[in-house]
Known about the structure:
alpha/beta
Amino acid sequence: MAILLSSANDSVIKRWESLLKDKYDLQKANTLTRLKELCTDEKFDLIFLHRPLVDPAAFKEIRQLNPAARIFLLSDKPDEEEGLIFLKLGIVGYANTYISAERLTEATRVVAGGAVWLGQKVMQRLILDSYHRAKEDAAATSEKKLESLTGREREIANLVAQGQSNLEIAANLDITERTVKAHLSSIYEKTGTGSRLNLALLINRG
């Protein structure tokens, strides 16, 4: 898999490179001009993009130059508003520039596999937004998918739809976080949602 690392900060690129070089084919761009050149001349599966290097307009241009590439945006100070803005523009991942080595490896695997990687705050913001937008909606098909859940699974699913994290759910229900994760695996399988966000959207539609 071809990955392009793009940042004007050499130390940032070196850090990403040190964590990924043994597993992926890497190229680097340390200016916006160089980034555009590489996106014009070559095709990449994934682009790690340092937020200080681009504004929304430049981001749109990069997307047009290499539309097949999946773009992971990394920000020195990630926040919900920024994440949502770029998510609407087409990013598939959003995280702190200095994400831990373990989480960066996992995030790369997730987005390369076609899924989306978002920070906890952005994820909760999306869930809460969907919750408020969907209060007045009713969907019989959504309810049918939830009928197979046990009482405890439905309870946990509802808390997920309210934007609570696994740790918060565990504390509220007086169970372990591992138990919450086990219930969620069962819930995802029964509802066919596969992810926290999709589950929340399903419940809030219903």
